[in-house]
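To whoever is on call:

I kicked off a structure prediction for a single chain this morning and the downstream step that reads the tokens threw a length-mismatch warning. I double-checked the sequence; it's 148 residues and nothing unusual in it as far as I can see. Pasting both halves so you can look.
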Amino acid sequence: MSRLTWYEVAPESAKAVSGLYHYVTKNTNLPEELIHLVFLRASQINGCAHCIDKHGRDLRKTMSIDKIALVPVWDEVPHLFSDQERAALAWTEEVTNLSETHASDEAYAAVSSAFEPKELVDLTVAIAAINAVNRLGAPFRLPVAARA
């Protein structure tokens, strides 16, 4: 079934979402690889094929394919992920699954010890941004670049 191209139908909404995304990717001190790691994990949880494809490709520029493949089970392979990456991934899952987790005190304590206050806010904004993009990309079935 063909679906609307949301950003063409409502370009001002696309501009607003893009502004948040641009802030996170261009105006924070978060490492680019960490941003794409968080973007990939949230996109996996949300089932946004377009974003999984895009951020997997972004990560392949700097990260091994083995590590990328194990992102969904990052907590089972802690030796592959730094303390900061693990804290960010756990926080990503907490914030993305907010209705279930309520952003637990345990996860907040862990992420707070791994990031400075401004970094924690920026990380949470990054998670919010990719969740917004996922909630547009998945329902409107944004295309993927991947080919068989």
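Update from on-call: the warning came from a stale cache, not from the record. Cleared it. Sanity check on the structure: The chain has nine helices and no strands.
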